[in-house]
Amino acid sequence: MACALIGSHIPANNSWTAADEGVDIFVETNGVHVSLIVPVGLPTEDLSDLVRPDQLKDPGLYGTHIMVGWGHGRVYRNAETWADVKSGDIASAVIGSDDTILHVYHIANPTPQEYRKRLRVSKAQYRLIIGQIRASFRLDPNGKSVVHPAYGPDNLFYDSVGHYSALNTCNTWTGRILKNAGVRVGIWTPLPGGVMHWF
To answer: Which of 10, 63, 98, 189 could form a disulfide linkage to 106, CB 3.0–4.6 angstroms apart?
Structure first.
């Protein structure tokens, strides 16, 4: 725990400042998990080939933005709320597992909230962020994303790549994407504060 707190509060990219011009993205937390919110499609960077309207039962719910988080598949699939988390799933997550998925919510025109912080990144940084999100999808032999129902009509699970463990958590994924794009964030972010308190 001490290492997690230290890593969360030592900054990577400490000289980073928000771009004057660029792309607005968000980080959002439910108190335990931090996700990224990005436009689903921009002329320069488009995720609509992986996250498509026809994957939703009601394509009208396809948002202007998606909130995307990565994590342990069993925990995600079995627990809509943290009260639903099973001890066996927690044990599997701590030990480590290649069963990982992306959880994608569709959102229309998000705005800053107490639990949702906006940051403006440069276009170059945005391309790096989207590239890392794209690389997290596990594709089928035809190069298509593999989708599964999630908790409701506006969100879906997607097969993902990566190994989940106590050292590589859902929040580590989010923090690493921002860090690799040059955004100021904790050097190691297994806890949500390692991401959220920088914005």
So the answer is: 63
